[in-house]
Amino acid sequence: MTADAAKTAPSDLAYVPFVSVENMMRLVHHVGIETFLEELASHIEADFKRWPEFDKSPRVASHVPGGVIELMPTADNALYGFKYVNGHPKNTRTGHQTVTAFGVLSEVATGYPVLLTEMTVLTALRTAATSALVARHLAPKDASVMAMIGCGAQCEFQAMAFRALCGINRLRLYDLDPKAVEKASRNLTAQGFEVTRCGSGQEAVEGAQVITTCTADKQYATILTDNMVGAGQHINAIGGDCPGKTELHRDILLRAEIFVEYPEQTRIEGEIQALDPDHPVTELWQVMRGETPGRRDAKQITLFDSVGFAIEDFSALRYVRDKVQGTSFAEPLDMLADPDDPRDLFGMLTRSAG
Ligand SMILES: NC(=O)c1ccc[n+]([C@@H]2O[C@H](COP(=O)([O-])OP(=O)(O)OC[C@H]3O[C@@H](n4cnc5c(N)ncnc54)[C@H](O)[C@@H]3O)[C@@H](O)[C@H]2O)c1
Predict the structure, then answer these.
(1) Which domains are present in the chain?
(2) How far is the CA of 236 from the centre of ligand 1 (A)?
(3) Among the residues of 289-331, which ranges form H helices?
């Protein structure tokens, strides 16, 4: 390197560890997907248990034609994280995914990022890890069969997490699109699941102790009607996560004990947008701390009204940061301008000419 080149070469402070999609997939295989889900769930649980330490707000949602684009920030005393994520239910018709995401973790002390990572794969993993972690507190203890309505991108991740954390190995799959059922069935059979393909949602829920709804539709949808849900079932409702985008008939909500991540966000985005603003809900962090019971009896219908909250992404970012530090899973990205004299940004620019 010439002396001039050395002058303009990035310093160590300029580099931010970057995890590409390829490296995220390598990392998941290196760790093992079920171990990854278990470790991620432990990080999420640890952060839920220290809930009051976090700076929290409902995510910032920009509703755009065809979907939503959201920013999800949160911070504790040491780290700040945010995720960029979209939700476009019609995207698959043009070969795009419904949900894509990336995220950043930064040091609070300096504001400097310490990680930039893909989060499309990571969001599917963290959503599944959260669902299964919650089900450990809410699902019947002997649950062995799960109905899955909606067999798109999230479906297999949910199944993997429920097996890793709750021991559920028997699945009943239904989707409006038979090709989606075929795809999920192929993938999950290859993972050793016992899979039944069903011709309707009604058929899928028969004999299931857990029902996962994982569909994507922008209008108020009714994936589950009241007659489909019986005593003792646990509902893991993933797909209702935007104003006007819900999956359950209101009567189910009136019979169920409802558990949520962050009520201020869930009342805007979750199934409970159909209820009065003061309808009682239980916050999951209190269940995880043992301050409030989860499932109380065998007959209770429990509902996890999942919308996805920033702290779950923060936990995922923290987990990935720890895993990739000093490994080839992260590449140094020249992302932060770092002049020798911190106040001479302009000098750095002019010296780089020619
Ligand atoms: N709660 C969370 O934290 C969280 C996180 C990620 C994604 N999501 C949501 O989960 C949902 C699924 O995401 P995805 O990436 O798998 O989407 P996707 O588009 O890949 O799959 C959705 C599937 O739902 C099916 N479907 C639509 N309407 C249906 C109906 N009425 N009955 C049966 N099947 C129906 C579609 O055919 C499709 O196969 C989306 O709504 C997404 O916004 C929630």
Answers:
(1) 8-121+311-342 (3.30.1780.10), 127-308 (3.40.50.720)
(2) 13
(3) 310-324
Q: How far is CA 200 from CA 174, 206, 212, 220, in A?
A: 6, 10, 14, 19
- Note whether 221 and 150 are within 8 A (CB): no
Asked whether 92 lines ligand 1 (CB < 6 A), one says yes
Question: Is residue 122 in contact with ligand 1, taking CB distance under 6 Å?
Answer: no
Is the CB of 44 inside a 6 Å radius of any atom of ligand 1? no
- C-alpha to C-alpha distance for 332 and 17, rounded to whole angstroms: 5
Return d(Cα 311, Cα 44) in angstroms, integer. Answer: 8
Q: In which order are the strands placed within the sheet that holds 257-260?
A: 194-197, 170-174, 145-149, 210-213, 234-237, 302-305, 257-260, 282-283
- What pLDDT is stored for residue 220 in this prediction? 85
CB 51 within 8 A of CB 291: no
Judge if pTM exceeds 0.85. yes
Q: How far is the CA of 131 from the centre of ligand 1 (A)?
A: 15
- Residues with pLDDT less than 70, the chain: 1-8
Q: What is the mean pLDDT of the chain?
A: 96
At residue 262, the pLDDT reads 98
Report pLDDT for 10.
Answer: 85
Burial 293-316 (b: 16+ CB within 10 A, else e): ebbeeeebbbbbbbbbbbbbbbbb
Residue closest by Cα to atom 20 of ligand 1: 152
Alpha carbon distance, N-terminus to C-terminus of the chain:
16
Residue 152's DSSP bridge partners are none
